[in-house]
Amino acid sequence: MVDEDRRSPAAAVFDALGGEYEKAFAGSAAHRASLKWLLERLGPGSRVLDVGSGTGRPTAAALAGAGHRVLGVDVSPVMVEIASRQVPEGEFRCADIRRMPLEDGAFDAVCVYFALLQMSRAEQSGLVRRLVRALRPGGLLVLATVPLDVEDFDGVFMGQAVRVTSFAARDVSALARGAGLTVLREESVMFTPTHPDARPEPQLFLHCRRDGTEPAG
Ligand SMILES: C[S@@+](CC[C@H](N)C(=O)[O-])C[C@H]1O[C@@H](n2cnc3c(N)ncnc32)[C@H](O)[C@@H]1O
């Protein structure tokens, strides 16, 4: 039983949405194209960290289905339960990635699909830097977000009250570069989730490689 008062805001929202989130975003061609980009570049049996792994679909399912070793981390117990059931060949942990220790160089790739939006800007920047250190040199990081210049914006997402913080697109790219990543491919799209309360949203997908320089700071 989860103590409702001690859940993080993100856990409360995504516990409530559960499998509805997957259905609403299943039509994303940009997400599928992003996974294709990653799968074409991973060596056999790569170790991949999926931050904010949600229901495990499409990301962990595609990676594990291609024979890669996936560790999914999500703060929502409901999402972790669904992902563990839907992608039994993956490993899923219920944890807040902001506080989870990460070993340097442990992963060949890291995915962060829409998992930063309930973090402060300082937390988002600090996390990306930590994720870069968790990549082996030359490892790949895919970062997708909603590139809006907003801080603590109170909105409604698929019927749930949410507080959103993000960066404008140019600042997301600058954050990635400042963290020691080379941006190899960048895609901006508008996407409307399949849900009665959904509105069109801008989405930015950055496909990056850890370069040779140490992250600053
Ligand atoms: C918008 S959903 C995206 C799910 C999946 N990445 C996808 O694209 O289908 C964001 C996910 O990130 C998780 N999340 C948000 N903040 C988190 C945190 N601090 N630590 C771990 N997971 C987090 C949420 O619980 C949710 O499942």
From TrEMBL:
<dbReference type="InterPro" id="IPR050508">
    <property type="entry name" value="Methyltransf_Superfamily"/>
</dbReference>
<keyword id="KW-0489">Methyltransferase</keyword>
<dbReference type="Pfam" id="PF13649">
    <property type="entry name" value="Methyltransf_25"/>
</dbReference>
<dbReference type="InterPro" id="IPR029063">
    <property type="entry name" value="SAM-dependent_MTases_sf"/>
</dbReference>
<feature type="domain" description="Methyltransferase">
    <location>
        <begin position="48"/>
        <end position="139"/>
    </location>
</feature>
<dbReference type="GO" id="GO:0008168">
    <property type="term" value="F:methyltransferase activity"/>
</dbReference>
<protein>
    <submittedName>
        <fullName>SAM-dependent methyltransferase</fullName>
    </submittedName>
</protein>
<dbReference type="InterPro" id="IPR041698">
    <property type="entry name" value="Methyltransf_25"/>
</dbReference>
<dbReference type="GO" id="GO:0032259">
    <property type="term" value="P:methylation"/>
</dbReference>
<keyword id="KW-0808">Transferase</keyword>
